[in-house]
Amino acid sequence: MIKMVIKKLYNDKNKVLIALSVGNILEFYDFALYGLLAPKIAILFFPNNSDLISLILTFSIFTIGFIARPFGALLFGYIGDRYGRSLSLSYSLLLMGIITCLIGILPTYNEIGILAPLFLCILRILQGICMGGEFSGSLILVSELLSNKKHKALYTSVCSAAGVSGWLLAAFIVFISNQFNYISYSWRLPFILSGSTAFVGYFIRQSLNNTEKVLSNLKTKQYNKFSITSLLSQSILPFLIMVCIGGCMGIIFYGQFIFQNTFLTSILKVNTNLALLAIMIGISSYMVFLPIFGWLSDKIGHSNTMMFSAISIMLLSYPIYNCFITKDYIKIILAEVLSGAILALFMGPATYVMTTLFHIRMRYTGVSFGYNVGASLFGGITPTISMLLYQLNLNPMDPFLYLAFAGVLGIFGTYLYQKLGNNLTN
């Protein structure tokens, strides 16, 4: 009965954007919680005489979740290319919600000892697998259905912005739960909440009915089974471009909006609620600027916009960190907003560019795998690398070096895209 009602609500093809956006919100909310609650998780699952060591161990588990993402990309990419995009997206969302809920009811170190971090690690691996096909899969489906000559990056950037609102929602829920720190289980509620909402997202995505356009292409031509060998031998440039896009995005996003929550509060001793509020403002700026710069890049050129952004990232990384270490709240907000704007300038056009790099018969797998290799290889280790850079000299400015490296990746990826040219397989 619920499916029938939802199908009637979403029978208009253009409303696919809404259905995919709802799923993005829920899935990105799930994945964000761990990073935002890292200081609390460090105490509960990795008790140690050194708070710094506890945080490094916590972020190591965060990294492990990212390492699992390329494997999820292969799994859900295969399902998406072989059996339909919406089927893959529906099951990844449902499983993600269930796993996140399990994290919320997981016993802590004081209750079951070493098994607590072990089970947490396993659940984060499963979370990473589910996340592997989510972001890129939704962008592909939007691009295949809604993009036209006039609006290409606009639609994909709107879908991406919806996912960002999931991170914002997670930050808001964590902010609320922080007000009830006197309740021992308050940290669990944001995780448990995802379980019920995941079922709603699942039914909405099931209603998409596997888009006629995608299925007709898949049925008329034999499916090309994806393999690492064929990718590296036949599509090495598209793969490297995807790695650079995923790496650049991952370093900036997880560095400025996830790691900063710990950096500002645990290292710079900024008030917890004020730090989280600044991060929420930064994420909001990224969400708002994404469709604006997506629309702008449709006008002035996707690669030109990406190159300008990548150069800006490299040049402004030092001033951004300089704002953080002043501990001046206005400057911290300015740094977060500037980070969001620069990232949106890169990802606005990149959300469309990445959907054009592979043939439709292997697009889901190729895009998801390349993007998640980059996000895992460079983005997933951002909190850990940033903490280690700080620990080397105990200089809070040192993590700016890794942020600058994101700009290098962006420049290289954009250069390869320009070299590949515009005659890409669609």
| End-to-end CA span | 37 Å
CATH architecture: Up-down Bundle
Instruction: Estimate nothing, just give the exact number of structural domains.
Output: 1
Q: State the share of residues found in helices, binned by percent.
A: over 70%
Largest sheet: none
Beta-strand percent range: under 5%
| Unreliable stretches covering 5 or more consecutive residues | 1-11, 212-216, 218-222
CATH class: Mainly Alpha
SSE sequence, one letter per element: HHHHHHHHHHHHHHHHHHHH
- Cα radius of gyration in angstroms: 20 Å
CATH topology: Growth Hormone, Chain: A
Shape: globular
Number of helical segments?
20
Instruction: Find the count of extended strands (DSSP E, 2+ residues).
Output: 0
What is the fourth-level CATH superfamily? MFS general substrate transporter like domains
Q: What class would the helix/strand composition place it in?
A: mainly alpha
What is the arithmetic mean of pLDDT?
82
Give the tags.
81% helix, 426 residues, MFS, mainly alpha, MFS_dom, 20 helices, Growth Hormone, Chain: A, cell membrane
